[in-house]
Specification:
Keywords: Membrane, Transmembrane, Transmembrane helix. The protein is mainly alpha-helical. The protein has one domain. Helix content is about 70%, strand content about 0%. Helix 1 packs antiparallel against helix 4, helix 4 runs antiparallel to helix 5 and helix 5 runs antiparallel to helix 6. The longest helix has 27 residues. It starts with a helix and ends in a 19-residue tail after the last helix. About 30% of the residues are buried.
Length: about 160
Amino acid sequence: MAYAAAGLFLVAGVLALVIAIVGWNGTSDNVDMLVALVGAAFSEEFTGNLDFAISVTMSVACSSLSLGLVLLARVDVVRWLLAFVGALTSVYYLYAVIKLLADGGGEYIAMVLVSLLLWIAATVVVVLPGTGRAMRGYQRRLAQYGQPPGYPQGYPQGGYRPY
């Protein structure tokens, strides 16, 4: 499960990176990709252009890619960092879908929906109990192989009495 979560976040990160590269200068003819930039729904309120959205998309893409690669090593804290990034990005894409539908942009919603479903799937998989068990099981196996073979497991029966 940990590998599946890492894979989903890597795919989501690559998709976000592609979206950011396509919209790099904000003058692309592909409107589907421009509206899929993370933060594009807020760009008019903050800066009036897509520079803010491109920066946020690049940040989300690079952080999810790097954390996804670290998750392959089964570092438990990265699991929760990815869950946080994925939840924030999923909430934004949900807001973007609602805003696009309310503003009459239903014809440009395809890439936003694909991104929303991918981020939700990655976030759900990373917080599943099976992913946590897979990560803890890996840590237990590492700890188990730390002792030489034939070494007694646990404490002696009588315990240690220093007197």
